[in-house]
């Protein structure tokens, strides 16, 4: 039997499973999914879990079931490309013929002293639970510093405000304005929401040190009761340490088929893969679509396309609590209640689609 192994049950590999199951892969092929948890986690919703406005159950989707789908749970210790074997920390081994690495990312602390040790995270479901316990356990009047005003930071700050109106929230943004790479109308809308809901946005910030109860912003020392870090990501350690050519962010460089440039049997998808496009669930899913096409052609012994079509992202969506949001699609910006309903609808469709496996 030929063995296709998927490392990580994130958005990219879930899309691969959605396309291949139940009968779109050869009968002489077995698929093995390796993940640390027995479910797919909706990472784009971890901010709500951390803020206490969504339950743990609401950010999970069951993995599909199939007679030729094996599910292996555990932490990956090593990927041996020469022997085509994946080693897990508990001693399990998983051999492969084709491998898709979709292990996601972790926080990038940019070598800021104390950032890793003294801040909380929303990068995994387990870390989001820990952040929830910390934030929801704070006494009234406590100060929460959120470092990083990208989409994750914005959504966390707004959701936390809705969950805990008694907290003082400070959102630190390196830029002059929120979402500086997008239309000013969008930035102004988000800024106005934060002003109305008493979330302090500190622009042009530069966090140089994090202590348990202090943030150093330039030369200023700011007293805080908790810090959540949302200021950038990097591939997980196991990927950063792989013996493969990487870009400046530590992501393996892939060809147009999302294969390692020196190994046609190893694909990389999602936050792990080098790309000029911003990391997102949408990007991972589009990359997965390409990988499925490549695998299908190889299984049928058909030549690959000489040039793969470029990936074009449709835009992005964000929420400001449960009632307001913003959407930027095809150079069109939508804000307010309609935008929030659009995001909720997309999430509902995603869960329904994947739960139907």
TrEMBL record:
GO terms for molecular function: oxidoreductase activity. Residues 3-288 form the FAD/NAD(P)-binding domain. SUPFAM superfamilies: FAD/NAD(P)-binding domain. It holds the Pfam family Pyr_redox_2. Its EC number is 1.6.5.-. It comes from the Bacteria. It is an enzyme of class 1 (oxidoreductase). Its cofactor is FAD. Keywords: FAD, Flavoprotein, Oxidoreductase. InterPro entries: FAD/NAD-bd_sf (IPR036188), FAD/NAD-binding_dom (IPR023753), NADH-Q_oxidoreductase (IPR051169). Belongs to the NADH dehydrogenase family. This is NAD(P)/FAD-dependent oxidoreductase. The lineage of its organism: Bacteria, Bacillati, Bacillota, Bacilli, Bacillales.
